[in-house]
Specification:
- This protein is an alpha/beta fold.
- Helix content is 37%, strand content 17%.
- The protein is built from 11 helices and 12 strands.
- The strands form 3 sheets. An 8-stranded parallel β-sheet has the order 4-11-10-9-8-7-6-5, with helices on one face.
- Strand 10, helix 10 and strand 11 form a beta-alpha-beta unit.
- Helix 3 runs parallel beside helix 4.
- The protein starts with 7 loop residues before the first helix and ends with a strand.
- About 10% of the residues have low confidence.
């Protein structure tokens, strides 16, 4: 397990860093919204970040996804900012993941589309999801027929877009990909013509407790195999599914033998990383974006 603290050199260099004091800032607004300050002048305790680290983390994951034959659909819940999302997507206002309806509304209000609400939906959130679906390209996630029925009972002026959450071993949510219930749920989505099965989604959250980097890779294979094997079973009826994997550890340390059968990655914390990610081997201390001085 690596040592996760700044080296003597990096400690000396930290006082020379310049930070953005009001957020990352969109390029066209950055001059008006940010102010550069030397760390030695800041009153402590002070919460700081280094924009160059954010950019490097974002660019690294974009390149990794491309090298694995995947589209990167970043999760934006860690920072919840337009500026950060644009760095993660490479500048496009589409193709993101959120964890709350309010996050979805915020990003939709700021011109983002193709948004996955990546929590199996509950009936109380269906009206808000319907409203979002009429305004932008919006996807909801289900992992059982009760959730699906609650969605389909709400009429839209277009078809609902549905992702099925797949359990890859985390056991927090998701349907067993080896069960007949998974196949039945997929068929139920499009029965009646009110919805489209857009894709499969999984999240290996148990990778956050991985004891070693090698174990992270084991979890990343579990993610891949869970969704790709189910996608293969569904391929005769649904040949064009989005097949997505991703937690930050598993996308930071993907399987050595690749992500065959997967076409999308959706990590989020990688943009900032943190001490725990460093401890388990997802990143180095130099990739951690935030510091309290």
């Amino acid at each position: 397990m690596q040592q996760c603290y700044p080296t003597a050199t990096s400690t000396n260099e930290m006082v020379k860093l310049h930070i953005q004091t009001t957020g990352l800032g969109e390029p066209q607004k950055q001059k008006a919204r940010t102010k550069k300050m030397d760390l030695k002048t800041l009153r402590t305790p002070c919460y700081t970040l280094d924009k160059s680290i954010a950019k490097n983390n974002a660019e690294t994951m974009l390149k990794r996804a491309e090298s694995l034959g995947c589209t990167l659909r970043p999760h934006v819940k860690t920072h919840k900012t337009i500026e950060g999302a644009l760095l993660q997507t490479g500048g496009r206002r589409s193709g993101i993941v959120v964890s709350t309806i309010r996050e979805a509304e915020f990003f939709a209000e700021n011109g983002f589309s193709d948004i996955i609400y990546a929590v199996p939906i509950t009936p109380d959130k269906v009206p808000a999801a319907a409203s979002l679906s009429t305004k932008t390209q919006f996807h909801v996630v289900v992992d059982n027929t009760q959730q699906l029925e609650a969605v389909l009972q709400h009429e839209l002026n277009k078809k609902w877009s549905i992702f099925i959450m797949v359990d890859c071993g985390y056991h927090r949510d998701g349907i067993d990909p080896n069960s007949t219930a998974a196949l039945e749920l997929a068929d139920a989505v499009e029965r009646g013509g009110k919805a489209t099965l857009t894709g499969l989604y999984t999240h290996g959250g148990h990778s956050y407790n991985a004891p070693t980097p090698d174990k992270i890779e084991d979890y990343s294979r579990q993610e891949r195999d869970a969704v790709s094997l189910l996608a293969q079973k569904l391929k005769p009826k649904y040949p064009n599914l989005t097949v997505g994997v991703g937690s930050t550890p598993t996308c930071s340390r993907p399987p050595a033998d690749g992500l065959s059968g997967v076409n999308e990655m959706h990590p989020g914390n990688y943009f900032t990383y943190d001490y725990n990610q460093c401890v388990i081997g997802s990143c180095t201390i130099e990739q951690v974006l935030y510091y309290v001085i």
